[in-house]
Write a structure and sequence with these properties.
- With about 260 residues, this protein is of the alpha/beta class.
- Helix 5 crosses helix 8 and helix 7 (about 210-220) packs antiparallel against helix 8.
- The chain is built from 8 helices and 13 strands.
- The chain has 2 domains: about 1-165, Spore Coat Polysaccharide Biosynthesis Protein SpsA, Chain A (Alpha-Beta Complex); about 170-255.
- The longest helix has 27 residues, at about 230-255.
- InterPro entries: Glyco_trans_2-like (IPR001173), Nucleotide-diphossugar_trans (IPR029044).
- This is Glycosyltransferase family 2 protein.
- It comes from Vineibacter terrae.
- Belongs to the glycosyltransferase 2 family. WaaE/KdtX subfamily.
């Protein structure tokens, strides 16, 4: 199965992550890396891996970038392994993928993720399962808030093996990214009909309940208080992201003339 798969990765200033990702993909004949114009050493690191091919495309949206990466970069294999730069595929998961014999009805496979803080796996997170392995001719990408969703035509299987999400970028970079991401989340939340919002999004729209509730849920609902400081760091990250969103929503309220909480 592995000879039928091309891993595809999107990057932008991913020097702290991309090398560890590519090290786990030595089995692939080719890895396609679509970069959005990084000004760090991302390109240099990719160039050290003989099976990696770098393509540069200015970023417009995640959905458009993924559509380009999967459909317009000359990939020859029928299957694509869709990876963020901070995804690390463990050996056990690679062995599982190698042994797959998919039926014609199978369009792809989802995976669950182990969230890591500085390489330490947490016992839980809010990170959702997602399709990562799919037939190239059966996937489309749609924008969903700050990120994209892959829509796969056909039955989606579920991998038993997990994938590590292990982002090692500096805190200041993370904060800059969150401001950009939460601005797009605010656009999504304020333009989506109430009836179509999840309960979590409705809580976030209150402006005040989201940050404390997500902190408590991470620490006690997901048990991260038992993971020591890495668990606290993750819980603080999720609370900070919701705080940024709340402030952006309130800023829009004030700009529109509303002063009521």
């Amino acid at each position: 199965m592995l000879d039928q798969i091309t891993p595809v990765i999107l990057t932008y200033n991913e020097a702290p992550n991309i090398g560890r990702n590519l090290e786990q993909l030595a089995w692939a004949r080719e890895v396609v890396v679509v970069d959005s114009g990084s000004d760090d050493d991302t390109a240099g690191i990719v160039g050290r891996f003989p099976n990696a091919r770098l393509v540069v495309r200015p970023f417009d949206s995640h959905a458009q970038q993924w559509t380009f990466a999967v459909q317009q970069t000359g990939i020859a294999t029928p299957w694509v392994l869709r990876l963020d730069a901070d995804y690390i595929v463990p050996e056990a998961t690679i062995r599982e993928i190698a042994a797959i014999v998919p039926g014609a009805q199978i369009g792809g496979y989802r995976a669950a993720f182990d969230y890591c803080i500085d390489g330490r796996r947490l016992r839980g997170s809010l990170y959702p399962k997602a399709p990562i392995l799919f037939r190239r001719d059966r996937v489309t990408f749609v924008q969903d808030g700050h990120t994209e969703k892959a829509r796969v035509d056909g039955v989606l299987g579920m991998l038993a093996g997990r994938v590590d999400h292990d982002d090692r970028k500096r805190l200041d970079r993370w904060l800059v990214s969150q401001f950009r991401y939460q601005s797009r989340e605010a656009d999504k939340l304020t333009s989506t009909p109430w009836s179509q919002l999840s309960w979590g999004d409705r809580v976030r729209l209150t402006r005040v309940l989201g940050p404390p509730l997500v902190l408590l849920y991470c620490l006690f609902g997901r048990g991260l208080i038992l993971d020591g400081w890495p668990g606290w760091v993750y819980a603080f990250q999720r609370m900070t992201a919701d705080l940024i969103l709340s402030m952006l929503l309130i800023q829009r309220d004030l700009a529109g003339g509303s002063t009521k909480p």
